[in-house]
UniProtKB/TrEMBL annotation:
Source taxon at top rank: Eukaryota
Family per record: Belongs to the TRAFAC class dynamin-like GTPase superfamily. GB1/RHD3 GTPase family.
InterPro entries in the record: G_GB1_RHD3_dom (IPR030386), Guanylate-bd_N (IPR015894), P-loop_NTPase (IPR027417)
Name of the protein in its database record: GB1/RHD3-type G domain-containing protein
Keywords assigned: GTP-binding, Nucleotide-binding, Signal
Pfam families, sorted: GBP
Amino acid sequence: MMVIGRTGRCCLLLLLQLKAMEVPINRPFQVVRPTANHSSMLPVPDGLARLASHPSSIAIISVVGPFHSGKSFLLNALLGDTKVFQIGRKTSPETEGIWLCRTDMIASDGSEVWLMDSEGFFGPGVAESYDAKIFTIATLLGGHLVYPPCIPSRPRPCLHVLVRHSQP
C-alpha cells in the first residue's frame, strides 16, 4: 500500500480539478446567450470558465450569416460528424447566442483549432442591433471569419448593415 503525503494529496486534487475542467473535443458549449427579448447578450459563466482554464493556445474560426443559411451544417461538415452542432428543420433558429467547440485539428502555428457557431442574422423578431453584436463578437474573437454563401433562392443580406450597426 502506498501512502500519499499532504503535498501529494494536494497535487492529486489539483490534477483531478484540471482534468474535470478539460474541454472535451467535439462538444460545443455556449459562451454568450441572448436576453429574453433578444435585445442584448449575457455571458455564460460556465462556458467562459472552460475557455479561460484551457492551457493551450487557441485559433478560433467564427462562422456567421443569416439564420438557416447552413452555418451549423458547415461546421458539422468540417468535423465530419453531423451531430456535433444542432441543426433543425424548424422555421425558428436553432442556435442562440455564441457557441464554441474544441476540435482535434491543429493550426500551422501549433495552436488548437476551435470552431465558433453563432446565432443567425435577420431572425424573426430580432433587431439588427442585436445581429450587429453577434457579428462584432464573432469578428473580434475569431482569427478567421467565415460568411458562407446563402441559398440561391434567398436574397443575401448585406454585411454593410451589420458593420454600420456595430460601430459606436
